[in-house]
Write a structure and sequence with these properties.
Among the domains are: about 40 residues; about 70 residues, Winged helix-like DNA-binding domain superfamily/Winged helix DNA-binding domain (Arc Repressor Mutant, subunit A). A 3-stranded antiparallel beta sheet has the order 1-3-2. The radius of gyration is 20 Å and the shape is globular. By secondary structure, the protein is mainly α. The protein is built from 7 helices and 3 strands. This is MarR family transcriptional regulator. One of its GO terms (molecular function) is DNA-binding transcription factor activity. It holds the Pfam family MarR.
Length: about 170
């Protein structure tokens, strides 16, 4: 473990008080934001300058569940419905997603990948997997699993708070 990482871990485990301006590098929110920046850099460098991570998330869900609708796509990908709608429109414009009406409910739009969308998905999925491996290569296999487990717990808790309408405490 690097010196900065060890020092950060020491501060986090010591439970630095929130009022202590000593070091933002002990704050999980800051580290999550920085990890997202690293992910963004690696995505652009290794995966695609044309397909965003959000677009890839959408085409991944559609590839796994052809005929899904916008609401299910939104729920599965963790995107709000307005963002999902805008992403779908961009994917349709690029010729990667086709829309069909549900014969049982003509208001419902069913989404599927076009042959070009499938080609893009297949190509980007391989590079995204390589990028993910590169991003976590400094972690041992058990640590990788632990990282995913902890992030999943944070996301699930955040979703529970959001659904309950909890607001952040004010200072």
């Amino acid at each position: 473990m690097g010196t900065l990482a060890a020092a950060t871990l020491d501060r986090v485990t010591a439970q630095v008080p929130p009022s202590d301006p000593e070091d933002m590098h002990s704050r999980p929110g800051h580290l999550i934001r920085r990890a997202q920046q690293v992910h963004g850099y690696l995505w652009t460098a290794m995966v695609s300058k044309d397909v965003t991570p959000t677009q890839f998330s959408a085409i991944t869900v559609i590839a796994a569940r052809p005929g899904t609708d916008q609401i299910a796509l939104s729920r599965e990908s963790g995107l709000d419905t307005s963002t999902t709608g805008a992403v779908i429109q961009r994917l349709i414009q690029r010729g990667w997603v086709a829309v069909d009406r549900d014969p049982k409910d003509m208001r419902r739009k069913l989404l599927s990948l076009t042959p070009e969308g499938q080609r893009v998905f297949d190509e980007v999925a391989v590079r995204a997997a390589s990028m993910t491996d590169r991003m976590v290569e400094s972690l041992e296999l058990g640590e990788r699993a632990q990282l995913v487990s902890l992030l999943a717990r944070l996301v699930a808790h955040g979703e529970t708070l959001r659904e309950a309408g909890d607001e952040a405490p004010t200072a």
